[in-house]
Design goal:
The complex is a heterodimer of chains A (about 160) and B (about 400).
Chain A (H helix, E strand, L loop, with lengths): L2 H16 L5 E7 L2 E10 L10 E7 L10 E4 L42 H13 L9 H9 L1 H15 L3
Antiparallel strand pairs in A: 1-2, 2-3, 3-4
Chain B lengths: L18 H7 L12 E3 L5 E3 H8 L18 E2 L1 H27 L4 H8 L5 H17 L6 H18 L7 E3 L6 E3 H19 L3 H5 L5 H4 L12 H5 L3 H6 L21 H10 L8 H21 L6 H15 L7 H23 L8 H7 L1 H14 L5 H18 L1
Antiparallel strand pairs in B: 1-2, 1-3, 4-5
Amino acid sequence: MSKTAQKRLLKELQQLMKDSSTGIVAGPRSENDLFVWDCLIQGPPDTPYEGGIFNAILEFPKDYPLSPPKLTFTPSILHPNIYHNGEVCISILHSPGDDPNMYELAEERWSPVQSVEKILLSVMSMLSEPNVESGANVDACILWRDNRPEFELQVKRSILHSLGF
Amino acid sequence: MDYSVSDPTDFSHTSIPQLSQLDTLVRCHICKDLLKIPVLTPCSHTFCSLCIREYLTREPKCPLCLNELRESSLRSEFLVSEIIESYRSVRDALLESLMKNQHNDNGESLIELTDDDNDDDLEIVGTNSREVNKDKNENSVGKITKPSTSSGVNSLLSSQRNKSNTKEQLAQCPICSGFYPIQALERTHLDECLTMQTLDANDNIKKRRPTPPIPQIKSPKSSSKPKRGAGTKDDVSHVDKYLSSFNTDQRRERLPKINFASMNLSQIKQKLMSLNLPTYGSRQNMITRYNHYEILWNSNFCDAIEPVDESELRRQLTSWEASHNPSNSNNSTNIISKMMRRANQGNSYQKLLADFKNDNFQRKSWIHMFRKDFKNLLKEAKRSIPRSPKTIDNVENQITAPENTEKA
């Protein structure tokens, strides 16, 4: 367990608690382990995800902030850039070294100057603007591209379901 | 580990919220802490020497602008270093007095404060004046500008006056990782740090999370004591340090990067031995050890304004290795509470032992205290006995406790 990582996570937590952007809440799951956070992300307005509250887990590597954390939605949500297991695929979560899709701009990738808040904000903007070119969930990509109303309907339905209706 | 986490938003509820800008600027973008041994990149960005060197082993780019960056092109910034160190030493006091100010009345009392506390808080004035200039541009707080220039000079003069000739050697506390003069560390700080940790161990986390600045505010008196290192460092004049920074007799040759792929095990061991580093562990362990030591060494002897000596570097290396060893992923507070428990045990153990020959000897608590050890001894003993009838085992079990007390 690295001191640097711990200190840095504590600082980010403190800053998030003092003034976080609207629509995101995040904090460590338990007091004994700073390396696993629970996050709540609000569906951005004017998107199919509006009105939804999505739960996600952030898992930090021991060498954070040198390496990026991993973000997983639990349960997974229907979105072109989210794998079936809930894992989020966006450039800010990829370290500059590996580029599985070969077209991410270096300046969009992870670097230690990024932060939890920036990650969650990019996830919110990812929800409002899916990037079908680097799709993680191919079915969702096709649905989004070819049959938008059906896509929106399915998203709405799963949101209602998640809210207990 | 120091859990009283500071961050720029500490200032947002004080009488000069703009200070949080200054506080943000003097932080490293990698560790988000106040810059420690700042270094400048060719692209004019500043990071902690250790942070950026470690990052560059992964990715030869500046984390901020992503321009290509090599370790050899980093340059240390003595002035920034001392600016930040002097800021660090007054930050708590500054925060505290600004909080108080806001309780009394806003703004104006700042001037009074600078008049009142002429000897202690002069450095604060210095820091303020920098901020005040910024204020001017923002047209926000006009009244404070007047005293800034004169007191700024004052602070310069008086810090010359206050300078202490004792150039103490600093060492890092293994618990809170703050730097303290070795003597203070040995005499008082370690004890304080340990007891504080264990007292707070349980409610530490709860306390620090909802109201993080409290640990800093609630100790208005202690800020003058050498508790947080701030007080002790006040003795050292940052101006002097900067002015004498050309004094480079402590500098050493930088350690080179080594291509271990072409080396065999004994060559690696030799290399480590030549640096007085331990040679246990696997090949990979030794390579990581050298690589991190190289970072520590170069950051210390090439960038630091006041390099520490090699033994301190080796200590830092050991503590780094311990914290990066996956098998060692215990919570640090646990380790400390264990240490404390052992220390307590040590006391009562000695107390008990003192009574060993008297009738007062407390057999029961003695058995209780070493129950685990006894059990382990028993297990070992049983294992060494070749398969024998069960009856012996039973008999043995009956004797165990008294027998062992005698053994011990």
